[in-house]
């Protein structure tokens, strides 16, 4: 299975995302922001970073990139798309997911091992989790505060589209502790924390068993491979 | 009237003009040159310099660029070496950064640099561009930058100005480093009132490259193109040259210029990827970053290194501000710029790559065989100099050196001579001192700072703060990796700069060893007061000798470094602060050792001997606000044996955790070992006191060197003791780990871990958050 990883100028976690796909058993394919074709990939990851320097607004310029026109079109036809951190911001700016992401309420960039609850497992990217499973993956952002209008929030909660919620600590002031969302169809998922940094023993978050042994993020990438095989 | 002014502004000082007007008064003094330096320039050129040449010489002959006061002492880093030490050294001192062969065809390059003065004036941009500058040095060697670290020293924590500097510096490093996608894997933060008006912001970067990808800053083939690419040139960092500008501009003209550079990490990130693609395509014959002294430095150094020359058209430089004068363009320290030497046949390939990354470039000229640097402004020649005289043959001074008048009295004023109060031996006030010390700003958790840095990006971070060293995997196939630790203790250096430098070296060396890596090479950033003060110069002389002798004794070479002078508030110099960075190599990062207990029921051992060494210690500082006496003794042969033991034991998988003892001694190491994975411990001090003939205050707070706290699984006890015995390393079992949620120091106190950790973590946010 070929999974595209998009690199915008300023993208940082593209190599990490490619590694995660490889470790899950997929084949990563590099996509460049100026590409107009998706090289027949079966799914796409929009990795973290500071696309176009986060100028204007995080993800706003990336949402206008040529490659995004094609991704939005295909996503609306069912192509699995995962947006991580800056990728989540791009999804929101592309209107594939609702709401917005603003400066952390404490005004600082924060990097921490973050506990989440997986609240929806009917998506292309979470089907390998069990409902309400608690996972720990790294979080690192300066503008991760999720906001939406009251009506939008009520709709997200009512339709069960909140996919990840922060546990123990809300690290950035996100409304309703929202860490990640899905679209109605379940093919598009976006979240602020970084699953691609918890895929390889020795380089992930600490666990009770051993230092840096957390690999909860791997299930995201196994999920999409599973979804593609079953499709 | 405005038209008339403009006409004057466009009139440049040409070489012909200079020859015709030998007696024209020039602002050499305002540019920081001495009369004899100016006279030497006139002698070299056979005429007075043009204002552009004067700008170049003045900035390249400055202390910052020429190392004129430190050069005679830095030489010993190249002289006090054996062939064995040079064996793994691919590039040594003098290049942008040293390069070390780490095996399997891989090499790493690393260096630490200061950005102290800009960081006081404008902490955010000063610190941000400090990161940007050191990363470009690493990139220039042909390497992919893989991590950064920062060594920070601020004024007194409760001084009203400190929070401005701390918040600005930390945000600046966070902003720039995070946006570059480089994991920040460690560093130091120290508060001391001596840094009040002069904080130290040192930044370290490390890069990895395949041997064949090594690049040098050299322009040697006539006909090759000289190309400037990256950000446009603006008026950043040209405060000094404004005297020249004011010669051509009316003094009530546009206000001239920020002295601090402004950074754009996005531009640098793109520049990094663009350069790495250029290297891969093999279209670059030489490369140099533009940092201090900007184009003056890049053009003259590239040509001088290649024993060649250049013809440059300065009007081709792409500018952010069209009103810049030629002198300003030559001096500008605008960030995120590089200069490449590109063979003509590769021009198209070069253009395709920079265009792909949407990086702007302009061809400034070409390399010529004649060792002469010609710079034109349109049709007019404004620079005509031998590049070597600008870049490498600057003045060298042997500054006066004097033993400080206060030194003997300072050394005599020891903890013993003062009779400083020690807590009673079995009382709760010893426990209160433990609490007071570990929650003091210098000893408390630095997570308020380090949580603002991304240490995950890249997916290769094997160790990072709060462990003793930062460790990065270089090869994803074999697990080959490198680790780095940096240290400096300004208080010890004030007491004895020679020993102080060796203490910093010993500590960094030990910090690399406790992680399981083998120490290989050294970098340094020497932060001192004014070289024009003979007492400061004595400190510098002592510290460099101590470091060079120490490196020779340990058999690890200095690969490069940086000197920062004039660090003082008014006339008061900072404590001498030679930051020493040690690079280690580990064959497989999976073997690394964490700094805290991982499991309950393990035995805790103290390696090394505890002496009554409290002078200059954290205990003396926090409990008594005292600095005097003599620093701890350094035994480098013992340090080497200790490192060897740790390496051997880690190869056999015997060590569960290892943490070095330094600031605040055993007390701090115990507490940190518990906090790391939230594991309790029960510890007794009696045997230390008995064997080493010290009291409990010493057992807990002495900063004797050569000591490490390790935890060993019970099944490995015998093997581990055997290794210690065979190597003659003193070892004592002093406790066991447990999951009591407490740390019990027998006959002293028992602390609730979560309560203590809350206080440990609360200190910095309460001060600066």
From TrEMBL, chain A:
Protein name, entry field: Unannotated protein
Family annotation (Gene3D superfamilies): 3.40.50.880
SMART domains the record matches: GATase_5
CDD domains for this protein: GATase1_FGAR_AT
Alphabetical list of InterPro entries matching this protein: Class_I_gatase-like, PRibForGlyAmidine_synth_PurQ
Assigned keywords, A-Z: ATP-binding, Cytoplasm, Glutamine amidotransferase, Hydrolase, Ligase, Nucleotide-binding, Purine biosynthesis
Pfam family name, one: GATase_5
TrEMBL record, chain B:
InterPro entries, A to Z: PRibForGlyAmidine_synth_PurL, PurL_linker, PurM-like_C_dom, PurM-like_C_sf, PurM-like_N, PurM-like_N_sf
Sequence intervals crossing the membrane: none
Domain Phosphoribosylformylglycinamidine synthase linker: 26-68
Domain PurM-like N-terminal per the UniProt entry, residue ranges: 94-208, 467-586
Pfam families membership: AIRS, AIRS_C, FGAR-AT_linker
Residues of the PurM-like C-terminal domain: 222-377, 600-746
Name by which UniProt lists this protein: Unannotated protein
